[in-house]
Each structure stands twice: as C-alpha cells, then as structure tokens.
C-alpha cells in the first residue's frame, strides 16, 4: 500500500472501533519540543556539565545516583521536572483525545514516557498506565513503604551550568530519607511500582470490555519492549506511526512512516 492507502485503511479501523488503545514511546514528545535523550550524544547536548565530567545517561539515570550524590541526581531530574512542567502538549494529543471522546469505551493510554503530557492534554488520569512511572510523583529512596506522593509541592531550583540542585532536597514524609522520582530507572531495585500494578489491573479490565479495539501506537522505539509487547495482549490490529526501521508485520497491522503530528493530522481528515 502507498501512504494514502495506509492512511485510509488506518482511518477505517479507527472509525469502526468502539475503543482506542493508545501506546506511545520516546518519540511522541519530540513534537512538543522535548529533547531526545537516547544515546550519550543526545543526553550530553542537553547536559553539557555532565559531559565535562564524563557522566553518561546510565550513570545518572539510576537509583544509586540518589544515594551517591542526591544533589547531582536531582540536578538532572529537577531540570527534567521543570522542563516537563513548562512544556505544553502539542496538537497530536488533542487529535487523539477527540477520537477517543467519540468512542463508547473511550481510550486507554499505555505509555513508557514519564512526562505527564497525556494528563496535561486532558486525558483521564485513571485511564493512563505509565509503565515506567511518573516524574510528577515521588517516593522514598529506601523505600520505607508502598506510598508515593505528588511532586506538586516540590519546586526544584537547579544550577544548570553545574547540573546541581540548589534548593532543599525533597524528603520522605514518613522516615525523612531523601525522596526521588517514582520512575523506573536503570538497574533499579528500589522502584516502588505498587500504584502501577494497581493501574494495570484497571487497564486489563478495560481491555477485556472493548469489543472492537483500534490500537494507535505512536513513536515507540524498538528498545521499549514493555510498550511494543502490549498489542500482543489483544488480537486487534495495530496502527504503527513510526520510522521505517520500526515497521510492524503486515499481518498485525498498518505501518505509517513519518512524524507523529503530520500523520495524525492526515488521519484526522478521514475520521
């Protein structure tokens, strides 16, 4: 099929569905202007202070960093938290939400992103499964309990030149230990996934209740098996919007190569 045929076939799947499963990955946020941290080159462009010290993404994006040097770790994550708070979701999120609002069962979002863009775009919070957690919630570094809490009261002041937190470190309200983002990091034995497991039960119940599902997968990289494997939980066809290298098996769905926003706009013209 050429691109026009792919768009028309994908639009028909969406029109005939009574529920939409939206899965997304790292590339979804690029159209909102968020940086691409994949690989040390992309990471170091955003954090030159860490490059000067030879600190790579794998060195800072792990739970042990909060034990070794919480001021530096929060310099990185505090900057990201502030960035995500400032960033407005781009038009593609609104397009997906409009499609979902017209469906009997609405939509459920399964995302590996931790930026909270879907919530900011107006999707129902209890219909979003953030499989790697959220930077907008905190947990104890120990951890001393299953509890997580909102990061809304934490205002990170960061010396961006040195990638260091200059405001007070956030603390666990139960034991007083340093708090960290409730995010699954690299080699992370301390991530508190209690809330995620509870949300997964809601997600599985929603899947079981949708008779005609369309799966719209946007910007999921091959290195994110936690998201790529989600369509295998259903027999529904997948509409994959991504680069050619990440093409889906034609038996499982429709692959549309290109940037997310441009493709979503084209699809919207047929729905």
TrEMBL record:
Pfam families: SIR2. Keywords: Metal-binding, NAD, Transferase, Zinc. Residues 1-271 form the Deacetylase sirtuin-type domain. It comes from the Bacteria. Gene3D superfamilies: SIR2/SIRT2 'Small Domain (3.30.1600.10), TPP-binding domain (3.40.50.1220). The active site is at residue 132. InterPro entries: DHS-like_NAD/FAD-binding_dom, NAD-dep_sirtuin_deacylases, Sirtuin, Sirtuin_cat_small_dom_sf, Ssirtuin_cat_dom. GO terms for molecular function: histone deacetylase activity, NAD-dependent; metal ion binding; NAD+ binding. Its EC number is 2.3.1.286. Zn(2+) binds at residues 140, 144, 172, 175. It is an enzyme of class 2 (transferase). PANTHER family: NAD-DEPENDENT PROTEIN DEACYLASE, NAD-DEPENDENT PROTEIN DEACYLASE SIRTUIN-5, MITOCHONDRIAL-RELATED. This is protein acetyllysine N-acetyltransferase. It comes from Paraburkholderia bannensis.
